């Protein structure tokens, strides 16, 4: 296999040439126009940002991608799936409201938002994972799998569990339904925090396997009956049902790679990653720390694996921002992500992605001015 092509442009601008125009030129040069968009539905997978976090991508970049796809005859929509944890994006109504608050609306981006796994995170499609070692059938948001074409627009940053949050994280974890996210995060099954349970019985009513029962006004889950679908998490009004979150970071990274393969297989795909505001932790946090390195630029490729490696290499070449969490680390191995989150190894996920045929870690970087 030859090297994959990754296209790059820096963030310098001049008169009559802004960043949105540079992004449009970048993705066109990288070959997005080779995809037949004519009258086809194009899912643009993005992270709208948890309320309180200000490191997420501005909606202006989404509009640029939307405009290019419309120019090519496509029908784009912005999408993400609901979160496993409690926050501003745990159901479709809150999720869309959070997106609006952060500036993503049909008026600012030129297209609509569809939450991939529906109102409560249970609208999913079971997708076989060819070559999967940990996942045989990935649980992917139905609207995402319904799309004809799959595009990602990723904010490349650090991540406390996977080392960095790049394109594979945006695809694999981001497109998983609630049950899918639980499968990636957990080796076990959900449990009830009894001190938060009010015994309303919603978990028992939604459970198709009679695993959730209420006794003495408190719910419990019989793990011998539970199949790990996660529906009880979505319906609990008190957020008393929790995922185990007991999977190792290395296995988490491998599962993300396998979920990513399920999402992109057998349909046109294209990926964009913006390396700016490189916060140490995920945009899922309701806050963000200062960036760990200076802004780098914008990248695009048909290969999500090569794209992640190119972005990671670019970040690791950058100087450390004084006073950042990276600056406070005692790890001087020149792997900025491991230095910030020592319990992670992002290379594990990359190696597994290559192994299962998702992409190539060898790349040719083509720079545009």
From TrEMBL:
Domain 4Fe-4S ferredoxin-type span(s) in chain numbering: 188-216, 217-246
Iron-sulfur found in the keyword field: yes
PROSITE patterns the record matches: 4FE4S_FER_1 (PS00198), 4FE4S_FER_2 (PS51379)
Protein name, as recorded: Ferredoxin
UniProt function note: Ferredoxins are iron-sulfur proteins that transfer electrons in a wide variety of metabolic reactions.
Signal peptide: none
SUPFAM superfamilies in UniProt: 4Fe-4S ferredoxins (SSF54862)
GO MF assignments: 4 iron, 4 sulfur cluster binding; metal ion binding
Record-linked Pfam families: DUF362, Fer4_7
Record keywords, A-Z: 4Fe-4S, Iron, Iron-sulfur, Metal-binding
């Amino acid at each position: 296999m030859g090297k994959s092509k990754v296209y790059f442009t820096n963030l310098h601008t001049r008169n009559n040439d802004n960043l949105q125009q540079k992004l449009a030129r970048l993705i066109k040069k990288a070959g997005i126009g080779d995809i037949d968009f004519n009258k086809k539905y194009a899912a643009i997978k993005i992270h709208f940002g948890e309320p309180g976090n200000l490191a997420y991508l501005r909606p202006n970049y989404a509009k640029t991608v939307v405009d290019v796809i419309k120019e090519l005859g496509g029908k784009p929509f912005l999408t993400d799936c609901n979160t496993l944890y409690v926050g501003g994006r745990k159901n479709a109504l809150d999720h869309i409201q959070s997106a609006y608050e952060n500036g993503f609306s049909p008026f600012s981006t030129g297209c609509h938002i569809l939450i991939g796994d529906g109102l409560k995170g249970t609208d999913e499609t079971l997708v076989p994972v060819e070559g999967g070692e940990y996942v045989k059938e990935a649980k992917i948001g139905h609207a995402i799998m319904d799309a004809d074409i799959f595009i990602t627009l990723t904010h490349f940053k650090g991540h406390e569990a996977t080392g960095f949050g790049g394109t594979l994280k945006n695809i694999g974890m981001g497109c998983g339904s609630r049950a899918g996210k639980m499968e990636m995060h957990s080796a076990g099954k959900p449990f009830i925090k009894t001190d938060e349970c009010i015994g309303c019985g919603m978990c028992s009513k939604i459970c198709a396997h009679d695993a959730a029962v209420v006794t003495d006004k408190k719910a419990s889950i019989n793990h011998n009956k539970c199949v790990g679908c996660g529906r009880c998490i979505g319906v609990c009004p008190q957020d008393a049902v929790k995922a185990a979150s007991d999977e190792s970071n290395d296995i988490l990274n491998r599962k993300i790679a396998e979920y990513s393969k399920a999402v992109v297989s057998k349909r046109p795909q294209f990926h964009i990653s913006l390396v700016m505001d490189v916060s140490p932790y995920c945009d899922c946090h309701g806050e963000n720390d200062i960036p760990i390195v200076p802004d780098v630029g914008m990248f695009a490729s048909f290969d999500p694996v090569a794209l992640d490696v190119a972005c990671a290499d670019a970040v690791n070449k950058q100087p450390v921002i004084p006073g950042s969490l990276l600056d406070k680390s005692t790890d001087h191995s020149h792997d900025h992500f491991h230095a910030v989150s020592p319990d992670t190894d992002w290379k594990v996920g990359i190696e597994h992605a290559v192994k299962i045929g998702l992409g190539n870690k060898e790349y040719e970087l083509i720079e545009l001015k």
